[in-house]
Specification:
8 strands; 4-stranded parallel β-sheet; globular; about 10% strand
Length: about 425
């Protein structure tokens, strides 16, 4: 591993506590990913990135800042990357998937707050995430009450912009989201000092569409009966895509897809014959939250798709590339992003439709709906998800967890029983 300590020190990080985090990561990566057999060779890129997740990409971001570019840290798939890229800005995800950060978050947030939100705040306040230290501006959104209040804390010493996501999907709501995107574009222009032109936005739209197409190619390979990649590896690819340069991300995903498509032709599968195919849905799985996938795939089943923000929602639906004016492009962005079926919407039949569609497309044997503790939105919606699946005759298991490992054996027991049940059908 390269030495990034001087960079971390310059970023004002707590090096002593950060060292504790860095000591744990290699073991986790080894247990979850490197222990797998017959992995695609192209996963070497993501293995490298995750082994130096707080070094390689942060160093690139720092260099870009030195060249005068602005870095925007985002929390949600509703923030339109295209707008930021069109102003020569850079988008990065932010840390929020580890129990390590939760205690620092609980110093300012109620313990009954979603662990994702507590971890995000803790990563910032504890000074143990370089991405939070690097970002020139944080961009949030109103998809979650806990996040909305957390943004007030995070915005105390870093510029914070919050996009107001409509809670319904009527025609007037899509127009309102278009206006919100236009207002965001104006703020991005002011912050970067760069003008967003129709030409620059068209180029940015194409860049992000190409990333979506590349990610979709990998997911399409998971539909095959001959499964060429594990759910764990696909999840890692998705998680890193939130941080990576979008052009490089598309290139690496296409490289992986090329290999997966060849493995399918050659009959090379990572799953044992008869392994049950699982769709995972629920709250997002931020890096390094790999607990559920690890349990499922060491319990005789394999994850073939994820209906979540760290899954299909990130890449499905392209932005219309034919618009030639900013007004038309903002509307095209609004129409695409409003097709994302987050649990914050009411009604949200689209999410049920997505799950049922994916059950068929990925030849799913069972669905695991797993929600983070205190996530009221997804916890409430699991009733409708479960009812729809049961009515369709699709086995479903509803789980609730957090980032701690204290419930790992309980989860393993329940997942194992669920896999045994669908295997006996």
């Amino acid at each position: 591993m390269s030495d990034y300590r001087s960079m971390w020190q310059d970023l004002g990080m707590d090096l002593e506590n950060h060292d504790l985090l860095c000591q744990v990561l290699p073991t986790a990566v080894g247990d979850v990913f490197l222990s797998q057999k017959n992995r695609p060779k192209a996963m070497d890129f993501w293995d490298l990135v995750i082994s130096e997740v707080h070094g390689i990409r942060p160093a690139e971001l720092v260099k870009a800042q030195q060249e005068g570019r602005k870095v925007f840290g985002t929390f949600c798939v509703y923030v339109p990357d295209e707008v930021i890229i069109a102003a020569n800005g850079i988008v990065t995800g932010l840390c929020g998937g580890s129990q390590f950060w939760v205690p620092d978050g609980e110093k300012v947030l109620p313990k009954s707050t979603c662990p994702l939100v507590k971890a995000s705040v803790g990563a910032r306040l504890g000074r143990t995430c370089p991405f939070f230290r690097i970002a020139d501006m944080y961009v949030g959104e109103t998809t979650c009450d806990a996040k909305k209040k957390a943004y007030e804390i995070l915005g105390e010493d870093v510029p914070m912009y919050v996009m107001d996501v409509p809670q319904m999907k009527r025609p007037q709501d899509i127009v309102r989201w278009k206006d919100e995107i236009a207002a965001f574009a104006k703020r991005v222009e002011e912050f970067t000092g760069n003008t967003i032109t129709p030409q620059k936005l068209a180029e940015a739209i194409k860049v992000i569409n190409e990333r979506r197409k590349a990610l979709k190619r990998v997911f399409d390979c998971r539909k095959s009966e001959c499964l060429p990649i594990s759910g764990r590896d696909a999840l890692l690819m998705m998680q890193i895509s939130f941080f990576d340069d979008p052009v490089r991300c598309a290139k690496m995903c296409n490289r992986l897809a090329d290999e997966l498509e060849q493995r399918i032709k050659d009959g090379v599968s990572v799953a044992e014959a008869g392994a049950k195919r699982i769709l995972v849905t629920g709250t997002p799985l931020a890096v390094p939250n790999w607990k559920l996938h690890q349990i499922i795939e060491t319990s005789g089943a394999v994850v073939v798709c994820e209906e979540m923000c760290t899954g299909n929602r990130y890449f499905e639906n392209l932005v219309d590339e034919t618009q030639e004016t900013l007004e038309g492009q903002f509307m095209a962005l609004a129409e695409r992003y409003m097709k994302t079926n987050c649990a914050c919407f009411t009604p949200n039949k689209g999410r049920i439709d997505d799950i049922m569609r994916m059950v068929k497309e990925y030849h799913v044997d069972g669905v695991i709906d797993c929600n983070l503790k205190f996530c009221c939105l997804y916890d409430t919606e699991k009733y409708q998800v479960s009812r729809a699946l049961k009515e369709a005759g699709v086995p479903v298991l509803s789980l609730e967890t957090d980032y701690a490992d204290t419930d790992a054996e309980q989860l393993r027991t329940r997942v194992g029983a669920f896999v045994e049940m669908i295997s006996a059908k």
